[in-house]
C-alpha cells in the first residue's frame, strides 16, 4: 500500500469548558510566498472533546477524552483519495485505511500504559499543565500503520505575544523516544492559565524538511 500521510499539524486545542469554539491559526514558513490560515472547530460535550476542520486538502475529525487521550481519529485527503480512521477499543486501536481503492485493516496493541496522541499540538495540554517533567505517548505511524513511542519534555514557562497581548505559556518539546530524538524535534507553547495551544515551531515533515510556525490568531465562542 502506498504511503499514507497524516498532517503533522491540526492546529487545534483543548480547554476544560463546555461549548463550541472557532480557532484560527496563522501558519508561516520561509519557503512559502505568503502565510496560510487554518480554522478548527472545537466541541466539548461531557467528558469528550471533538476537533474538526475542512480545508482544500481534506478534512479531519479527532475525538479525545477530557485529558486529551485519543478515542477516534479520521483523516481524508481530497487530492489523493486517501482515508484513514483509527479508533480505540480497550487496550488496542483498530486502524482502517483506504488508498486508491486498496483497503487495509490493522489492530494495534498497546503494550505499555501510555496515552495515545495523534497530533503534534493540541493534545499535549494535559501534560503542559500537569507539572510533569517528561511523558511518553503512543502515536500511529501512518506509512507503516504501526504504533511508535514519542516523548514530551517540559522546557519551562515563558512570556509570549498573542493577539490578546502577552501571556505566560508553558513550553513543551516533543520528539521520538530514545536515540532518534536527536534527529527530529518540535516545540509547542500552551497558555498557562488554561492549556490553550498557542504556538508550534518545528519541521513540516521528516528530518530536514522545512520549518513551519503556527500561531493562534483568534478564538471565538460559537
Descriptive account of the structure:
With about 220 residues, the protein is mainly beta. The chain has a single domain, classed as YmcC-like fold (Beta Barrel), CATH 2.40.360. It is about 5% helix and about 60% strand. The chain contains one helix and 14 strands, in the order ββββββββαββββββ. The chain has one helix at about 125-130; strands at about 20-30, 35-45, 50-55, 60-65, 70-75, 85-90, 90-100, 100-110, 135-140, 145-160, 165-175, 185-190, 195-205, 210-220. The protein has a 14-stranded antiparallel beta sheet. A hairpin with a 4-residue loop joins β9 and β10. The longest helix has 6 residues, at about 125-130. It starts with 18 loop residues before the first strand and ends with a strand.
Number of helical segments? Answer: 1
| Second-tier CATH architecture | Beta Barrel
Give the low-confidence spans: 1-17
**Residues in β-strands, percent:** over 45%
Short description:
This protein is mainly β and 222 residues long.
Topology diagram in text:
Blueprint: E1 19-29, E2 36-45, E3 48-54, E4 58-65, E5 70-77, E6 83-89, E7 92-99, E8 102-109, H1 125-130, E9 134-141, E10 146-162, E11 165-176, E12 186-191, E13 197-203, E14 211-221
Summary tags:
222 residues, 14 strands, mainly beta
Amino acid at each position: 500500500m502506498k504511503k499514507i500521510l497524516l498532517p503533522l499539524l491540526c492546529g487545534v486545542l483543548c480547554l476544560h469548558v463546555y461549548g463550541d469554539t472557532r480557532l484560527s491559526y496563522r501558519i508561516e514558513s520561509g519557503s512559502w510566498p505568503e502565510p496560510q490560515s487554518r480554522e478548527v472547530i472545537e466541541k466539548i460535550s461531557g467528558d469528550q472533546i471533538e476537533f474538526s476542520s475542512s480545508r482544500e486538502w481534506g478534512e479531519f475529525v479527532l475525538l479525545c477524552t477530557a485529558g486529551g487521550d485519543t478515542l477516534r481519529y479520521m483523516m481524508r485527503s481530497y487530492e489523493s483519495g486517501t482515508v484513514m480512521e483509527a479508533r480505540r477499543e480497550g487496550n488496542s486501536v483498530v486502524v482502517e485505511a483506504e488508498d486508491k481503492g486498496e483497503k487495509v485493516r490493522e489492530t494495534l496493541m498497546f503494550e505499555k500504559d501510555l496515552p495515545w496522541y495523534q497530533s503534534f499540538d493540541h493534545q499535549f495540554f494535559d501534560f503542559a499543565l500537569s507539572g510533569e517533567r517528561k511523558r511518553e505517548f503512543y502515536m500511529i505511524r501512518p506509512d507503516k500503520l504501526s504504533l511508535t513511542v514519542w516523548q514530551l519534555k517540559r522546557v519551562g514557562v515563558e512570556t509570549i505575544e498573542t493577539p490578546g497581548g502577552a501571556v505566560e505559556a508553558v513550553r513543551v518539546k516533543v520528539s521520538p523516544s530514545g536515540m532518534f530524538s536527536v534527529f527530529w524535534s518540535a516545540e509547542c507553547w500552551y497558555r498557562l492559565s488554561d492549556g490553550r495551544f498557542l504556538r508550534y515551531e518545528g519541521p513540516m515533515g521528516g528530518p530536514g524538511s522545512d520549518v513551519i510556525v503556527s500561531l493562534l490568531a483568534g478564538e471565538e465562542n460559537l
